Amino acid sequence: MTTHTTHTAGDQEPPPRRSFLKTIWAFLGVIAAGEFLWIVSGFLKPGKKTSQTALAETLIEAGKLEDFPIGSVTAFVRGRFYLSRLEDGGVLAISRKCTHLGCTVPWDDEEKKFICPCHASAFDMAGDVISPPAPRPLDIHPVSIENGVITVNTSRTIRRNTLDASQIAYA
Fold this sequence. Notes:
Number of strands: 11
Largest sheet: 4 strands, antiparallel
Strand content: 15-25%
Helix content: 10-25%
Structural class: alpha+beta
Number of helices: 2
Shape: elongated
Distance between the termini: 113 Å
């Protein structure tokens, strides 16, 4: 005795397993291609224009001139520079980056000089080389003093070979 199963016109057979897997793989491929195109377009898009906020972050108001005693060096971590108030009353914004290999150079208040921890280069409070291997003085940032307030422009770094009187800001 054989049993027959008859299908009516409304009944459909479930799709075979192979076609289901093909559909899943096609769907995953479309998602991967979309992600790839999104990443590539991110690289090809031009960078954002400099905003007013970014400009404000490069101009750092250090404080009032009277807050920095003559012969002092003050670290500004946010701006990555030292504000040096020279013996003649002038002000320099000195970069923390050593001109030898780019190490961060700390100020030693006891010895009154910048000493590179990596290769022992030493600089005076104006950033001039006292002992090599640093080939030139520490770089500086432009400083302006208006109405007794010191402002440092960290977006510009001035590479120098000697200390020039034009590099020092006076009130």
